[in-house]
Amino acid sequence: MAPVIKFPSRRSAPSGDGLSEQGSKTAKFEALCARFQPDVFRYAYWLAKNRALAEDIAQETFLRAWRAIDSLLEPESVRPWLLKIARREHARLYERKRFETIDIEDPVAVSDEGMSVFPSEDLSEVRAALFTLSDDYREPLVLQVLFGLTTSEIAEQLGIEQGAVLTRLCRAREKLRVVLSGEK
Amino acid sequence: MNHEELKRSVSAQPMLLTSEQREHLLNCSECSSFVQELQVLEARIEAALQVPVSGVMPKPMRGFSALPFGLAAALTTVAVLLTALLVATPQDALARAVALHMDHEPQALVSEQAVDLPALSAVLAGAHIALLPGGPTVTYVNACQLRGHLTPHLAVHTSNGPVVVLMLPQERIAKRQSFSQLGLHGMLVPMARGSMAVVGSGATDLDEVISLMSSKVRYLD
Questions:
Q1: Which residues 55-94 of chain A have a CB within 8 Å of chain B?
Q2: Whether residue B59 has pLDDT greater than 50
Q3: Which of A2, A3, A110, B159 has CB 3.0 to 4.6 Å from B55, enough for a Cys bridge?
């Protein structure tokens, strides 16, 4: 059973105005979780290439976000902020656990429960192709296609030049095109 | 711009064609074919990236499954469009448009300061709407476009978190309808003129906001 994010209890909040303030903070945080958890999970999934690890990363991301939510000054930066936390959590996870191998069979076979417009065989094929990309190529592609980030935003997120982002995106698609078409 | 330059630049951003690229494509069938194939690939990539997330959703979100929305979805097959037309009601389409719109304006959910009354009045007046005194505390306001119509986009403060309200005077609906799209829970409500979309998280009380807004909204001639 996958872990479920536990929100801080409203009952543990201080009394009086503090209760209202705490309740408001909790409500704000819950709204953020509801809105952005799919994004954070998917980003973590494509970083970690493993569903269970992605769940761990998403869990840790929102726990850290809860602790730091008061420092979030610019509302429009919520998603990039969460994605950055997730990226750091992914790096931390690997520092701690140092995984030796990654089983890509399970991620590729993730069920879509009939929600996709594409046949599940096609999705599996494309996912398998995505896993053949190096992390350097896959990550900017995920940020662009899944979250609609511009190349400059991707550059900022990854800490690289915009020109490098353009190159990686181009090469990623070229590799996918070749893999999926069976060309050599 | 030669063929190789075009293919390289479009491969980096296939959904954002510049005027120079469009001009080249009009006169080059080879590159045009390349771009069409690339855009089909883009739709497949987006669908593949949308892995199901229901296993880690918090309680209010259980049961939600992701649909492959986004730019590339517009390029999916004619069959998909036909299917959508057959199964979707006009209100479903409106609900989806509302959810997609909110996806691009997440900042509405985190603003906490009450907006200036003149700014709020100006945005509402643009859609021939006024809000009577004693209405809800509005913490976000923006004049948006939704399905080609000017749409006041508000966030309303409630004790359980922000609730987004989209005033849709051009969107007539037959009856009240709840919806869950993209992880958002909302209600489409018929109004004296058009409709109103009220959207929040699972914890928020939409009926409270609907009642308050309905009593305070007035339509201007």
A1: 55, 58-59, 72, 75-76, 78-79
A2: no
A3: A2
